[in-house]
Protein: 3-dehydroquinate dehydratase
Amino acid sequence: MLGRGEGTHSPSICTPLVGKDRKELLTELAEILLKKPDIIEWRLDFYQEIQDINSVLSAAKDIYENGERTPILLTVRSQKEGGQPISLSEKEVVAILAEVCKHPYVAIIDFEVSNQPEHIRYLREVSKENNKKLVLSYHNFSFTPPKAEIFKSLFLAEFYGADAAKAAVMPQNNQDVLTLLEATREAEKELSIPLITMSMGGLGAITRIVGWMYGSSVTFAVGKSSSAPGQVPIDELRKIIQLTKKVTDPENYHSHQIVSM
Structure:
């Protein structure tokens, strides 16, 4: 589910669930499941009753019971990192994530590494107590920071004891895309936890296809609705990744060389 990317294994494919109410969520879920994602990300910041914990738990139960055992990643993306505007404070978001952790409905929670250290430590404690995985993430929808800054965000996730570190950045040019891939490659060598990285938008779409070759263990794809720019439809992404693995396999490469001679 969240394994180490070593350039040899296909990444897990995660698709977003962005319905604003339980009816939309279940309709969207049914369509997504037909495409057999490895993980489903429930973007709770899209949910219109996010402030009602009973409604959240009820919706989470519906998703869990209808999800055909697909692991659910629960995310409340903050507006400052590209999420939907919500009327909750960081402390209230932490309380929701902690409460959901106490139930079997989700397998993974995502929290931003830029949040308050005491909130990160608390969620690490609660998630561990309830056998949930914790992803600590960093998103920059404006630009791609220097490689050292991307690496720092990934390192901080490991420092806080996360089960996986995520970084998503917006490129302004092709060099920015290479910066993200280089940061991923170097972090994969230095860190002991799985990485989830991507360059967003059209320019960065290639990282969703080949990121696994540099150490990213999960890639995000469109099941029904997109939650970030540059996401590729899951059916197309799966085919492209399989083709990429085939043509980059050393055995296939050598056999092609012999034939071409």
